[in-house]
Amino acid sequence: MDLCDRREIKALLDRHGFRFSKSMGQNFLIAPWVPQETAAESGAVPGVGVLEIGPGIGPLTQQLAQRGEKVVAVELDRSLLPVLEETLAGLDNVTVVPGDILKLDLEALCREQFPDMPVVVCANLPYNITTPVITALLESRCFQAVTVMIQREVAQRICAQPGTAEFGAFTLLCQFYAESTLLYDVPPDCFYPAPKVTSSVIRMEVRPTPPVEVGDPALFFRVVRAAFGQRRKTLLNALYANFGQQLEKEALREALLACDLTENIRGERLGFEGFAELSRKIGQILESGKKPLA
Ligand code: SAH
Description:
Elements: H1 6-15, E1 28-29, H2 33-41, E2 49-53, H3 59-67, E3 70-75, H4 81-87, E4 94-98, H5 106-113, E5 119-124, H6 130-140, E6 145-151, H7 152-158, H8 169-177, E7 178-186, E8 191-192, E9 199-206, H9 217-229, H10 235-243, H11 249-258, H12 272-288
Parallel strand pairs: 2-3, 2-5, 3-4, 5-6
Antiparallel strand pairs: 1-8, 6-9, 7-9
Helix pairs in contact: 2-3, 6-8, 9-10, 9-12, 10-11, 11-12
The site of S-adenosyl-L-homocysteine has 23 residues, from strand 1, helix 3 and strand 3.
């Protein structure tokens, strides 16, 4: 059956007594070019395993199964399991795993399902959990690439340039782990039901190491979160609000000056390199015990 034909989808879902759930971000693809192109861009090829999140009724799953070695599709909505059994019948390299992607141990899943294979992720993500899912996927370091459909606004944040309103802590987290490319936009009428926002497909190529040496990654992310947690403050004041227990303001001012930054610069002006340098400097100061509070 044609999984992108609106009428056939409706008949299929009616037959199974399925009801759409808003809270599970259910917008099913009805434009055949989207699952085709997305799967083609994902790196799903013979010898490579594919993790899909939220297969829905399986249009992308079918495309991935034709290209990759093995597809594991994690679906939260149990009422879709009998539907998938029907639509994926005959595809013997697909395993549907019932569950919540945010609660699964990704490392264990990959070890069990893809023991000797590189793995990529490809999905039309449920939009209400886009950022936590991408964060978990990247932090797990289990995947070579992550190709996902997300809200255009989030795609723009991931690919943002320093100094723009979209540039933020999530941009830097994604840059730390991956090199991202915005592939194309997908308008609302490609889905059933149509979402309110435009979507984009983005490909994140996972890096073997960060683009710039950041020193201690935990400290790097603490500096980033401090800077963007209080966007309206100057970087110095935002840092002081976070590091004040450990460092005097003067030490933080020196760290900024040592990085050729003025003390009233705002955090969003710094790019990845700027934050990397600053967090290395703050790390040195912390380590040298320079001007710790008594
Ligand atoms: N891939 C399909 C469906 C996308 S809609 C298509 O493109 O047509 C998002 C899908 O994610 C739905 O099937 C929804 O049930 C599922 N989902 C929502 N939250 C989830 C979660 N936490 N873990 C796994 N799947 C989830």
